């Protein structure tokens, strides 16, 4: 979802961003949010810190969430500093807050849905970008509502989460983006 948010931003913003800078940001974020986490997952699996990709137990989620927090901090420091693209900087601050909140919930033995956190965070960011730049993304909003419903339904069908865990995940993802919208608007 972080990569999707960055691509969405670059595709919808009327602000001029040089193509070389756009490609560099997308490439860097692809490496840091897709390739690196996959490699770290296999490392964690090799040293028996996680059993499956699904991170079914609350205990299994803790270390990957800490690692993800450090990756997001690295992105904020090296790839998206505040003085370059403030909208994306605050998008990633929201992601960091959601990740830390999810970790705190995991410490309290509560398994919030990370799928819902990620999709709700992107959903709110897309709405914020549309409001900020006064662009019409009604189709995207409708599609995201369908996707959010599909994600929630699939997580319930697979018995991976309860309704409370899905609702908590939705708000853990949505609220930081909503609150931070005031800082970059």
Would you summarize the structure shown here?
With 185 residues, this protein is mostly helical. The chain has 7 helices and no strands.
Keywords for this entry:
185 residues; mainly alpha; 78% helix
Topology:
Elements: H1 2-12, H2 19-46, H3 58-79, H4 86-107, H5 114-133, H6 138-157, H7 163-184
Q: Care to describe what's here?
A:
With 185 residues, this protein is an all-alpha fold. 78% of the residues lie in helices and 0% in strands. The chain has seven helices and no strands. α1 runs parallel beside α5. The longest helix has 28 residues, at 19-46. It starts with a helix and ends with a helix. The model has no long low-confidence stretch (mean pLDDT 92).
Report on the biggest sheet. Answer: none
Strand content: under 5%
On the 0-100 scale, what is the average pLDDT? 92
Q: Can you tell me the residue ranges where pLDDT is under 50 for at least 5 consecutive residues?
A: none
- Count of distinct strands: 0
Report the order of strands and helices: HHHHHHH
Helix content: over 70%
Indicate the overall shape: globular
Distance between the termini: 21 Å
Radius of gyration, CA atoms, in whole angstroms: 16 Å
